[in-house]
Amino acid sequence: MKFLKRGLAASLAFFILGPGVAHAAFPDHPITLIVPYAAGGPMDRLARQLAAKLIPQLNQPIVILNRGGAGGNIGVISAKHAAPDGYTLLLDHTHMATAPSLDRKLDFNPLGDFTPLGIFVESPLVLIARPGIPVDNKDNFLRWMTSQAQVSMANAGTGSASFLCGSLLQSRMKKSITMVPYRGTGPAMIDLLSGQVDLMCDLTANAIPQIQAGKVRAIAVTVPQPLIGTVLGTTPTMQQFGIPIAPLTVWYGLYAPAKTDDSVVRKISEALRTVVHDPEFRKEQADAGLNVITDERLAPDGHRHFLEAEIKRWGAVIQDPGN
């Protein structure tokens, strides 16, 4: 009879309190953060800075796991197959929006296989030119473009930030531009410096040293407002320079596997929101040429809506860059 009463009591408690009481509050053991690119790169640096600030918020160690390959797809796929319990997270950038258009046999769905947790930093790009090209004002630059039999533009390979910028530029300019792909930003920059190609879009952090040295010339930045307070503070925006393209940044977001519990999503999202207001974290990102995001994209719903829009945007540009 005692065993029966105990069993009934336990069953009643389970019924009233629900199954959640049987589990420890999240998180109760270390978290893995997958970086789908090699160690030592810009995203690896960002992941380690992010983890250092998330650890005090979540009170658990965070292990960085670099799983590079296939342009980031291998790491993303491994995160897709992780348990949706919040203990495996993914850090990725604009790749999540461009991958569906770049790979018809993609083994993951950015919207269906993941729960967005927040976009928290982004990097502007700057359009730069080899020496000798008139970039002092938009009229001279556009006159130069129309006078050339061919205008060439370097990029760091399909799917890179410079590739996306070039594709977007080509879709909006009346002048045909010859895209020249390279295996990385370094070789592309070398040929721009030597005058082998005319133009290139690059992350501001990469381009600023060459601009300061006078080796390349800044034309315009890809954000809505000038980058006041930086080396590029006097560089006009694309719109101001007469190039009608929508703002373009390389943005970085955090993800969990699909079907992660809402309470876990809220906890991680709240921790991320705290991190982006941390003065040390903000300075680290500014020093790396990144802007911290505090608008609606920082929230999970805002992240999802923005990702949906970016997938559509880049799908149209990549599939028909001349449109």
Task: Record keyword descriptors for this entry.
disordered N terminus, alpha/beta, D-Maltodextrin-Binding Protein, domain 2, 11 helices, 2 domains
Rg from alpha-carbon coordinates: 23 Å
CATH architectural label of the largest domain: 3-Layer(aba) Sandwich
Please identify which CATH superfamily of the largest domain we are dealing with. Bordetella uptake gene, domain 1
- Whole-number total of structural domains: 2
Number of strands: 10
Strand composition percent? 15-25%
Helix-strand category? alpha/beta
**Which of globular, elongated, flat, extended, rod-shaped describes the shape?**
elongated
Low-confidence spans: pLDDT under 50, at least 5 residues? 1-22
What's the overall average pLDDT, rounded? Answer: 89
In CATH, the topology of the largest domain is named D-Maltodextrin-Binding Protein, domain 2
Percent helix range: 40-55%
CATH class of the largest domain: Alpha Beta
Order of helices and strands: HEHEHEHEHEHEHEHEEHHEH
Instruction: Quote the distance from N terminus to C terminus.
Output: 79 Å
* Largest sheet entry: 10 strands, mixed
How many helices?
A: 11
